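Batch manifest, entry 17 of 40.
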Amino acid sequence: MDEATGVIQNAIKVKVCGASDMGRIRKNNEDNFVVCNLTTGEVSRTSPFPALTLGSLGSLFMVADGMGGEASGEVASHICTFTVPKRLHENLKSLKQVSEMNFVLLLRESIEYANQIIHQRALDDPTHRGMGTTATAAALFGPYLFVAQVGDSRAYLNRGNELTQLTRDQTFLNYLKEIGVQVPSDPEMDNRKSILTQAVGSSENVNVKVTCTLLQQGDSLLLCSDGLYNMVPGGEILRVMMGNEPLANKCQSLIDQANANGGNDNITVVMAEFSGAGLPPAVPDAPVEVREFRQEDFAGRV
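Output type: structure tokens
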């Protein structure tokens, strides 16, 4: 490893781009996104981002969709995307050695910390009472992609010609499914699919769900708010992700399609493409294995 830059040998290369749009109906944009080089602490909230070589402390990609009326949603999502990368970078830098286990524990803690700040801000200021935000944060540490989620913003991974959802929407409709209640065969027509069971800042405590998957060369990531996936079918999302255009064009194409299909909400996307010798070679037919993060799976690793 290069001690000056924190860049590891057999490096992982990342191309990343993000974009956000108000949509055609809403009066303001309550979405925010951020990309952070966790090794250097460098943060970007506008595109284009420079190509990134993964450092020893990894990188973070995040989308937050605020809620709460007036400007409160924008405040909540801004606090979240400002607090999480800063808190995570500072805590990682304080460790003598970072493993997958403490990397994920600190990722989760950074969102819990943001939850405390947003919740307290809402308690202190009646104009922001009830505000909150989704948080979908994909953190790359070595070849592992860890996705921490609160709410219903989504993370997808494209491998070969297949799109795999890495997150599960934390909605009342999904909760009913989990407890065995019969739900309509077409959940897209059920308004309960938009009722969140939790959001960052809406209550004193938050349960951050984390999934993990092992990347390979050629994989690509999409994070998005519901303003995209409610407007653009998964097949069309996959078609755009598989195209040969620059990432900035792909992001804009998805936003344009969401607007063309109604643009009923704010639309935010972050896309990343992964390559480099630090990842296993591409095996196009290899399935994307997504599992819930468990500490015992990484016990003893350094």
